[in-house]
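Chain A, query sequence.
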Amino acid sequence: MGATSSASANGGLCGSLALARCQPAHTRSPSPSSQDDASDEVKEQHTTAWSELRSVQGIVCPGGFGNRGVEGKIAAAQYARTSGTPFFGICLGFQSMTIEAGRNLCGWENCNSTECDKDCPHPVVIFMPETSLTVLGGTMRLGKRRTVLQPGCLAAQLYGDTEVDERHRHRYEVNIDKVPELEAKGLKFVGRDTTGERMEVIELDDHPYYVGTQYHPEFLSRPGRASPPFLGLLLAASGQLDEWKSSEEAKDKFRVEDPFAENFE
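Chain A, predicted structure.
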């Protein structure tokens, strides 16, 4: 977890909005034994990080590779899920949300991604079968690919469509065998690839904004035309998402002219 930052959105969306970006530092609550061994500096960093996280109105949990920072992302996801804090997870952030739900909603002890623990008893995130564990160059699932969204889901409302094309960059994916039990606990996989076999978007029942995407919407976001999942996070964090969803007239209030549009035509 990193320090909070003040973000001001244009077009009257919100004033000063405190957001946090999860970073791989001191976010997992130490066990009693580790607390005894930890230095005062580490304890202070841990306390400060949690204090900063609890002070914000919205959280972005970004992508990454390997196990560095994953437990912190999972801890942040649990906090956001249980506190009702708007949360948006991207790629590894999306996978961390899934791991957290497996551990704390489904009760799968020590569930994990095989990227972090290849022998974990409940692998909710697994290596994609068509890629290589040994040849890393040119083996990622890359580029713009289509996601099919469930009609009426929040993501479909934000995009204004049930088919969206977004860019990807990953080797691991949610284990489809675990999806039915996760969905039964309220974590809904509302977006999938065109085959229906690859999970792309999650939402949580009865939460102001708990959304994750396997893809990277920041790659197609730009000033004046925020990517829909980021817009949703800002709306939820500023308490305006329900108003935005109420009517087309309400949506017009949040539309702004894109000053860079000509550069992208």
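Confidence is low (pLDDT under 50) at residues 1-16, 24-34. The longest strand covers residues 141-149.
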